[in-house]
Design brief:
With 459 residues, this protein is of the alpha/beta class. Among the domains are: 4-42 and 105-179 and 280-359, FAD/NAD(P)-binding domain (3-Layer(bba) Sandwich), CATH 3.50.50.60; 367-449, no CATH class. The chain contains 17 helices and 19 strands. The protein has helices at 12-23, 54-63, 66-69, 105-118, 164-170, 246-256, 258-261, 267-273, 298-301, 310-328, 332-362, 368-383, 391-397, 402-407, 409-420, 425-428, 432-449, and strands at 4-8, 27-31, 50-52, 74-76, 78-82, 88-92, 100-103, 122-124, 128-133, 138-143, 146-151, 154-157, 176-191, 206-210, 215-220, 226-233, 277-285, 288-289, 293-295. The strands form four sheets. Strands 6-5-14-15-16-13-17 form a seven-stranded mixed sheet. Helix 1 (12-23) runs parallel beside helix 10 (310-328), helix 2 crosses helix 10 and helix 15 (409-420) packs antiparallel against helix 17 (432-449). The two termini are 25 Å apart.
Length: 459
């Protein structure tokens, strides 16, 4: 096969893939529908901060960007909960004081684009792909009002949830394709720094205002601001459709987000200027066509942002692909087939994990029983480090396949229910007979899940 590769999309995954392919010696052309974000100001309102975790850092190691990005990443060691009455609580993410990292999407994308170009990739901006003939790898672009046709030897669709390549796949025979919108939308807001540029809330935490049917989150930025995102139904008793006037917004924030409102002097302008955006999950199979093309990142598995794994999952696609290239060289028929086999189940799993975590963040984090369970999970991890790791830690702090993590949920639910039925764990743990039973339960749990694949997904 020719060593010319075409990539649709110069976003995070497309730019990273371009770097990897250039390092392997391929000629790479990237087509991006937007203008060059390094030269144009990007409007606010659709830029939920990234939560970088282990899978994302591994990909940045592969690109050689880790050292450059680390100073721009703010560790978040847990959830900082804000209740309507002003009370707060902190829930650590890990038993080992591990963190996920708040990273600016725009800053990371700019650095990846620049690095891709420095490695020799050619990025063509303002090229909107109108159609892909999958059988011939012929692409039709609109560039400044003129039509342009490009033939690709090998094509990757890294152009997001509404990918032109994905759309072309979906019209082919024997392709299963679906998309599902949540009845919720999101709107970006901002908390500003103090007079001396200081953070006005705990800096090293992901802040959550859980309100049952809706919520707001905030992630820290290096300039002292917090990027806030409100998630709320489009319609209903408390919904975006009900927030029509400034008075409506003031009333909601005065009663539900008073502590945040005091730090948001631009609330009204942000609320009525920034768009209300949709949340989509997509599924498609197959992910590739012969040895000619494949989907990657959100184009293959767009997910809702509630586990902070969208970018991490897309980057892991790239590390898996890089590993397969090491194994199979230029045999793209085998590479793409194996890539799909390895990543499709994990794409489906992380989509489900993200949807499940929405319910957890929105209402369960304020439930005393749920909080007790989380404390017990941490204690089990400390007491039995070789036999128990929570699903959250599997997803965020390891390279255990997403599909394995989600398969552990039922077994962990059964184990924790068994433990909590006995009463107060932290009292019971002083009892030798309880400890003996606990050891047996943990052994049974460990034997059950050991049948799963805990290997490194990117191996």
């Amino acid at each position: 096969m020719s060593r010319n590769v075409t990539i649709l999309g110069a976003g995070l995954v497309g730019s990273l893939l371009a770097i990897i392919l250039r390092k392997k010696g391929y000629e790479v052309s990237v087509y991006e529908r937007r203008t060059d974000m390094r030269k144009a100001s990007i409007s606010a309102g659709r830029s939920i901060n990234l939560a970088m975790s282990a899978r994302g850092w591994k990909a940045l190691d592969l690109a050689g960007l880790r050292q450059e990005m680390e100073p721009l990443a703010i560790p978040m060691y847990g959830r900082y909960l804000h209740q309507p009455d002003g009370q707060t609580a902190f829930q650590p993410y890990s038993r080992n004081n591990e963190a996920i990292y708040s990273v600016s999407r725009g800053e990371l994308n700019r650095k990846l684009m620049t690095l891709a170009e420095e490695h020799g990739a050619k990025i063509h901006f303002e090229h909107r792909c109108a159609h892909v003939d999958v059988a011939t790898n012929t692409l039709r672009f609109n560039h400044n009002g003129e039509e342009k046709t490009v033939h690709a030897d090998l094509l990757f669709g890294a152009d997001g949830a509404f990918s032109a390549l994905r759309n072309s796949y979906s019209h082919m025979d024997r392709v299963n394709s679906s998309q599902h919108y949540l009845e919720y939308g999101y709107k970006e807001l901002a908390i500003l720094p103090g007079n001396n540029g200081e953070w006005m809330m705990e800096k090293e935490a992901l802040h959550i205002w859980p309100r049952g049917k809706y919520m707001m989150i905030a992630l820290p930025n290096t300039d002292g601001t917090f990027t806030c995102t409100m998630f709320m139904p489009f319609e209903g008793e408390v919904s975006f459709e009900k927030l029509k006037t400034e008075a409506d917004v003031h009333q909601l924030f005065d009663t539900q987000f008073a502590d945040a409102k005091a730090l948001m002097p631009g609330l009204i302008e942000d609320f009525f200027t920034n768009p209300t955006s949709s949340l989509i999950t997509t599924h498609i199979f197959p992910w590739h066509y012969k040895d000619k093309s494949a989907l990657i990142g959100d184009a293959a598995h767009a997910i809702v942002p509630f586990y902070g794994q969208g970018m991490n999952a897309g980057f892991e696609d790239c590390t898996v692909l890089a590993s397969l290239m090491e194994t199979y060289g230029d045999d793209w028929a085998t590479i793409l087939k194996e890539y799909e086999r390895k990543r499709k189940p994990n794409g489906d799993a992380v989509a489900n994990l993200a949807l499940n975590n929405f319910t957890e963040m929105r209402d369960k984090v304020a439930d005393p029983k749920f909080l007790e369970r989380k404390k017990i999970e941490k204690e089990l991890g400390n007491r039995y480090p070789d036999r128990f790791i929570s699903v959250y830690e599997m997803v965020s702090f390891s390279h255990i396949p997403y599909n394995t993590a989600i398969q552990c949920i039922q077994a962990q639910d059964k184990l924790l229910e068994q433990i909590m039925k006995q009463g107060d764990y932290f009292v019971n743990i002083e009892n030798s007979s309880f400890c003996e039973s606990l050891g047996q339960w943990i052994t049974a749990y460990h034997a059950e899940v050991q049948q799963l694949d805990f290997g490194n997904e990117a191996r």
